[in-house]
Amino acid sequence: MNILVIGSGGRENAIALAVKKSPLCTNLISAPGNPGMERLGKCIPVDVSNPNAIADLAEKEKIDLTIVGPEVPLVNGVIDEFRKRGLRAFGPVKGAAALEGSKAFSKNFMKKYGIPTAAYETFTDLNAALEFLKAHPAPIVVKASGLAAGKGAVVCMTDAEAIAAVEEMLGDKAVFGESGKTVVIEEFMEGEEASLFAVCDGKDYVLLSSAQDHKRVFDGDKGPNTGGMGAYTPAPVVTDEILATVKSQIIEPTLRGMIAEGSPYTGVLYVGIMVTKNGPKVVEYNCRLGDPECQVVLPAYDGDVLALFDAAEKGELKNFNAPKAPKGSAAIVVIASEGYPGAYQKGKEISGIEDAEAIGAMVVHAGTKMQNGKLVTAGGRVLGVVGVGKDLQAALDKAYEGCAKIHFDGAFFRKDIGQKGLAKCKK
């Protein structure tokens, strides 16, 4: 098969690595790709926000299956465009991708179909939102309804933080632009978060292993939220009992609901859950693999990733023979640029990737580029170092051993990835 992977981040590098291993893959193209993906096949520039440009590329390159990594082209309707042209692409149509594209839509959807989530209200008027906050003191969560690159949800532990968040979104600053013109304010849920990924064909699904992300920038879950500083799989907080509840009360009703809405869900359904004292509740939906969770759940999948995605796109998961359990554990540690998630410098030369790979770590590129023949930093999250092992400790040891080999000015990473998981494993 001639495969096209859309995207340029760590998630897409991990997808490309997994796809390249499949005997079904005869040729791999990435668009726009990154230096890590360039090692696996040709990279071609494309505007990922433009469904027509992506479809044109697939036609020109005679692609058999396109795998769309980021949310923007999905929310913009790239799958609809492919289907209109008779092309094959793995992902949800625009109507289904609205589960991520609009928090207001997803919350109303969950309410309509009885899917457990936090109580909420939706606002477009600043004064109405501020009045609501007076009657609902912190802790509380304020979310921009639209896409905000993973940074549109603010957990407010004080009333002042909640007021500031609402004013930033609905006031004159409008920090999230159009994405923040509708705001969802919801109850604060106590518990532990985890991520689950269902590969769906519209009716049936295959569940990948559970994962736990680390959003805060510093050790001890301190500092501002980021796109993710590390992750591990499987997540011990997701017990067999929790998993059964998630399947019956969240994933299956979601798939039935999307059929009823006229947009059967194909592609990867990401369900972020909070494991509360009253059971698992949905924190958010995403319409694609998570980043950095993708970089651990795909290496832990003990089967052919491309065969799985191909069967899902064809609507053939009902009889698909998927492995029942992950292959050991996997962990990723993200190496970031000094200053991230705030202002940071680019263009710092990177060394040591080959040394990290030589000891068995997998290195994925997230924010890198080639400049004058040298690999340099080009983003806040620069690289992800992945370790796979028989258990979580072994996976973390390998990832951190790899991190120690990689260097660039201002590089930093969290030293406590996976500690919650390790603590549960020892109980």
From TrEMBL:
The gene is purD. PANTHER family: PHOSPHORIBOSYLAMINE--GLYCINE LIGASE (PTHR43472), PHOSPHORIBOSYLAMINE--GLYCINE LIGASE, CHLOROPLASTIC (PTHR43472:SF1). The keyword Nucleotide-binding applies. Pathway: Purine metabolism; IMP biosynthesis via de novo pathway; N(1)-(5-phospho-D-ribosyl)glycinamide from 5-phospho-alpha-D-ribose 1-diphosphate: step 2/2. Residues 107-314 form the ATP-grasp domain. Its cofactor is Mg(2+); Mn(2+). This is Phosphoribosylamine--glycine ligase. It comes from Hallerella porci. Keywords: ATP-binding, Ligase, Nucleotide-binding, Purine biosynthesis.
